[in-house]
Amino acid sequence: MTKKKVTIREIAKASGVSIATVSRYLNKVSYTSPETEKKIQKVLDEFNYTPNAIARGLAKQKSNTIAFITPDITNPFFPEMIKSIEHVAKKKGYSLLLINTKEEELNQKDFWNNLRSRYVDGFLLAQSELTSEIQDYLSQVNIPFVKIDRAVHAKENNTVSVNNFEGAKMAVNHLVDIGCKAIAHISGPKTVLTAKERLNGYLSAVEDLNLEPIIFEGDFSLESGKNITEAMLASNQNIDGVFYANDLMAIGALKTFAKQQVPIPQEIAIIGFDGIQLTEMVNPEISTIKQPVVEIGENAVTQLISLIEKPDETINRNVELNVELIVRESSRR
Description:
By secondary structure, the protein is an alpha/beta fold.
């Protein structure tokens, strides 16, 4: 038999105080005397009462919930980041709502109104693009948010990103150091800032080294890495090194190289970008430009909670973190 849930009315009656007093105590919205607090808490303990988080959110129009909005939960980069976000959020008393959604849904007001109806206090956005209309709307309704990864755009406030430009140069210079002379770049979508910054870093590096740029555009997916690598090999450009704009495309490319019996790294050396754990699980293990995933998550959620809890303060932070070269079998000659 299901045990009946105790109501706030019953708590008030057993405590000898009004319902409003119990509500004030539970929601911490105004002063309650220490004597009254002890009396109410004693009854709460006796009844083993747990406040309804949704009801409290409705009363305070605050739920201590933040949302993480991602374009592709299948990319291992995002789950790794979410772990660090959830860890910090829990320590600060917030729960995390995960939303995997398409770009077209983000540009509809209904999507954001649904978030507001749930009293989500703020969100972390890893999606690539918002229309000016939606950005204006978010400013009007005053929902705090912080942008990370693909959502970051130049000259915006409240962002956490990495130095994609220098990371790309690092990748190209590493391939040159091991003897590569014709280095291709499989880029991400040119509409995404992270992809553009990595492309620009590649172009800067090959120009400095007096090499010819060889560019193919992908879309950050496994399938894209496989298919674009097929097109690259068919182009007959004597390529001996490839910098992939993310690790997922580099992993997808391994199937193509194996199918066409191209030995890695003896004939073509490859390197990715992100530093996802999966790069250590494939054969050969893939070299990568590693992003500090944990630091990105920690910085983003700390910044967001500051925006939520200090709405009257002007907090405009743009954090840019450094990346690291990790050399593995795919580029170790």
